[in-house]
Each structure stands twice: as C-alpha cells, then as structure tokens.
Design goal:
By secondary structure, the protein is α/β, with parallel strands linked by helices. Helices cover about 45% and strands about 10% of the residues. The chain contains 9 helices and 5 strands. α2 packs parallel to α3 and α8 crosses α9. The C terminus is likely disordered.
Amino acid sequence: MDATMDIDFAIKNSDISFICVGTPSNADGSIDLKYIKSASAEIGKSLKSTDGYHLVVAKSTIVPETTEKIIIPIIEEYSGKRAGKDFGVCMNPEFLKEGKAIEDFINPDRIVIGEFDKESGDLLLELYKDFKCPVLQVSLKTAEMIKYASNAFLAIKISFANEMGNICKKLDIDSYIVADAIDHDKRIGREFLNSGIGFGGSCFPKDVRALVHKAEEVGYRPKIKKPHWKSMKNNPLN
C-alpha cells in the first residue's frame, strides 16, 4: 500500500478511485463544485493515458444529478474516453457521524451504491463484499438524494427535539423523559431527540441549504426545510 499526492500514479496503480473532496456552500446556498470539477479533470487527464478499465467513485456529498451532469462530462472531456465503456462510474455516499468516523466505517448501517451501469456497481460491490450490512444498488442521482434526505431528516429531528424541549421547559417538564417515552414508538426512535444547542457541524447546515436550493432550482419550494434555511443565513445553528 502506498500513500501519494500524485493523482497520475494513484490512477495508474489502482482499479478504483474515490473523489472525496469538500463541497462547501456558495452564498446562495448551492454547493461550490470547484473541487469536484478540479478532481474530475485531474482524473480525466490521468485516464487518458491509462490502459484498461478503471472505476471512478464520487464519495463527496453532491446534490442529485451532479455525477451525471458534472463529473462524467468532465472526465470524458479530459480523458477522451466514454463512461460505461472505457471507465466505470459510481456514487457512494458516506454516513459518518462526527467523532465516530472509524466506528461507522467499520460497522455501517448500510452501504449505498449508485451505479452508472451494472459493471460499475458490481465492481464496487466486490470491494464491499466483507461488510455485514444491507447494500443498496440504485441509480446515481438516487444515491445522491439518499445522502441529502438522511441529513435533512436528522436536522429536522434535532430541530423538533429542541422545539419540544423549549415547550417542556415552559411547562416544567423533563424533555428527556418525554424523549425516552416516545422512543417506545418504533416509528420514531430515540437517536437525535436530545434537546440542546441545535444542529451544526460541517454537514447539516450546508446540506440543508443545498437541498433547498436544488429543490427550488427544479421548481419546488420546500415547506418543511425552508424555515431552517432562512434561520441559518445568519446563524449556522438552528
């Protein structure tokens, strides 16, 4: 096993490459894709002089349609090769909690494989063959959406817990007892129901913003998540 900063060396000495770059927020809430575009271009340049089949996997958090409309065209442009014929493409979102990345990687709740075609998906599936958890093989944009839906739901759940906590405080009720009680309803679950300072970190605020922006881009105005976006313009914790 080698560690290198040389993308060309990495591509030519491996079968699978993962794009794991940051996707920060733009001022309007959309994601900044400059690192995604740069990585895709560099991979394309290396693939141009690489023989044999190579799988490119997007691991970064990107809104639906990014892999097929941004990553694939850039790689094809710089490599002169075609996705599905000369190289494979997958979207494989991560679901790692802050402070528990290693534990969550070793024991994931599920593995999501968004595949451009069956050959691409099956090759990535082979990489994960020893993991003991459900593996879902879906389309590229479905995999991208699963990541955003997961983070948006958790952000909403945390915000709900805080709303209940604020009401409980006014009524002199222990919100933790309430949370423990509703945990017995199997539709709800106890995780992320502790009231506190709200959601923050590197993912939840920007992912909620990005999902709202993408929804509005395709002509839908979110009714549940929109308040979070408004409040987070000036305050990253909601």
